Amino acid sequence: MFCFKLNISKTIFTKSFIVSKTMHSSVSRNYVCMQQVPGFTIDEMQKTADQSVQRYTKDNDALNKRKGKGVAIVWFRNDLRVHDNEALFLAWESSEAVLPVYCVDPRLFHGTYHFGFPKTGALRGQFLMECLTDLKRNLQKQGLDLLVQHGKPEELLPSLAKTYGAYTVYAQKETCSEELNVEKMATINLEQVELQCDQPNFRVRPKLELCWGSTMYHIDDLPFDCMLLPDTYTQFRKSIESKSAIRNCIRMPNSLGPPPDVKDWGCIPDMTELGLEQIKVDRGMKFIGGESAALSRVFEYFWKKDLLKIYKDTRNGMLGPDYSTKFSPWLASGSLSPRLIYEEVKRYEKQRVANNSTYWVLFELIWRDYFRFLSIKEGNSLFLLGGPRNVKANWSQNQILFDAWKNGQTGYPLIDANMKELSATGFMSNRGRQIVCSFLVRDMGIDWRIGAEWFESCLLDYDPCSNYGNWTYGAGVGNDPREDRYFSIPKQAQNYDPEGEYVSYWLPKLGALPKEKRHFPGMSYIKPVVVLRYGNTKKSNTPSTSRGMSAAGGKSNDSRYKRIH
Ligand SMILES: Cc1cc2nc3c(=O)[nH]c(=O)nc-3n(C[C@H](O)[C@H](O)[C@H](O)COP(=O)(O)OP(=O)(O)OC[C@H]3O[C@@H](n4cnc5c(N)ncnc54)[C@H](O)[C@@H]3O)c2cc1C
């Protein structure tokens, strides 16, 4: 069976949870902050998170439902949370003692597949360790702990199953090839282990039980088989919105212990052990890893700052912490469940206002779901040069141009500022990502996979499905040919940074120039490394004949670039 279906959670935990208004009286401070805003304390963050967790837990009568025997292992992967965690819930329900495990897999810290960038850059490495620290703390609060082991999961899990006599390892299902290979190897190796059971002369082989948990819509609730996923996002969205429902969050018991007797719970590695450099984020958004920070951010964005009702108007911004939700790093690490966001949106709509903006956050989360399901349908083609449509094009791998892009030295402030933000914080707005992607593939003509791997290395919210899904779209090799778009720098600058505030935040020298010169500073800035495909003017619909590079597709008046943004 492809994934483990949990009907039990629906029947046991559909009762709605009544929340006291006083729950919101104490709030976290700016735990995510721009440089100018004073910091936060972990305690404040924890307090808000605890209050949110309470809403998504169930009281002790749930304990009566526990009916299993022996030890069950939960192998934490990209589901680093206690709330709405199906693998953790199933392990708890089916055993007398749960052993939560995280394997620090050395392969995550090697190079990216083709171009050898650090597979997990320093900022995401730091974020991941914060996630683990927080997970451990939250598990301890619920009566458990986190066993941290260093090595390959497919080697560690069988040995742990043997040591603790665990018949089942529960984990969240993944969809891309690297993760699927690990699942496959873990299954095979677990089957090699023989465990003694109650009946004499009878042996049991432990198994890996995978459950679905990464999307807002459950895979089992889609109105079509994943292999028949619609080719366009709009078809997909309309179909699920009319035919499927979003499940409630699983209400977790508020006590999950006791754990089995473990002599040494291991240590969460520090950056040096991972071979990573500690980087201090002193400009832009500072993200803290973990469920507590994630829940605090939901609280802050929705309830404290009341920003949900204007999300649709602000979401295309680039500067500051609040133009969009900034949930993505926590969603990608699984510190935040998309179903929890859905429930909070619905609660907000009931208690405050329901409008286009409140809906639009769900609209964006459906994009995230779409790319996840697409990765099942399209398999490895998502990672190949020609993409799902197997498009043949001439791409360049010009190192000088790529380095200029990567280091934020292209001579185009809008590109450079975004690339500097990415290196300094591990984050870039959606607007920025679309612009720098378009610039790399269309204006520079560079192999899109180099850009995608650079994002893979740097992004805090790196997720193979959303990253490669968006890059294939941006490069015009995605499954939907209609999504093929060119982002004109002059037009984007005019629409989204008309005063040059964003570029001068990241390139402070530009702040001295008059506003209208900040995007095209001429001699006072680096000389542009390429000529834009459609020239440097704001009237971007006249193709330029003097292009520096052969872009994807090779023709300067290519009809594939039908939409100019
Ligand atoms: C070239 C490129 C690469 C990208 N790589 C990633 C990636 O590795 N991981 C990732 O999570 N997102 C990726 N995105 C999508 C998007 O840019 C980020 O999800 C978004 O900027 C995160 O900021 P936010 O949480 O404030 O988003 P919001 O605007 O607040 O949106 C809410 C949530 O919706 C989801 N979402 C929004 N837009 C998209 C989208 N286009 N695709 C998928 N999900 C979306 C995210 O989970 C996001 O947190 C990429 C986009 C591009 C153009």
Describe this structure in words.
By secondary structure, the protein is of the alpha/beta class. The protein contains 19 helices and eleven strands. It has two domains: 27-371, Serine Threonine Protein Phosphatase 5, Tetratricopeptide repeat (Alpha Horseshoe), CATH 1.25.40.80; 384-564, DNA Cyclobutane Dipyrimidine Photolyase, subunit A, domain 3, CATH 1.10.579. The chain has helices at 8-12, 42-55, 86-93, 122-141, 153-164, 177-191, 233-243, 291-304, 311-314, 328-333, 338-351, 356-378, 399-406, 413-425, 430-443, 448-458, 464-474, 489-496, 501-506, and strands spanning 57-58, 71-75, 97-104, 147-150, 166-172, 195-196, 203-204, 207-211, 252-253, 485-486, 563-564. The strands form four sheets. Strands 4-3-2-5-8 form a five-stranded parallel sheet, sandwiched between helices. Strands 1-9 form a two-stranded parallel sheet. A two-stranded antiparallel ribbon has the order 6-7. Helix 5 (153-164) packs parallel to helix 6 (177-191). The radius of gyration is 24 Å and the shape is globular. The two termini are 44 Å apart. Bound molecules: flavin-adenine dinucleotide (FAD).
Distance between the termini: 44 Å
- List the ions, cofactors and other small molecules found in this model: flavin-adenine dinucleotide
Continuous helix count: 19
Profile the largest sheet.
Answer: 5 strands, parallel
Shape: globular
CATH topology title of the largest domain:
Serine Threonine Protein Phosphatase 5, Tetratricopeptide repeat
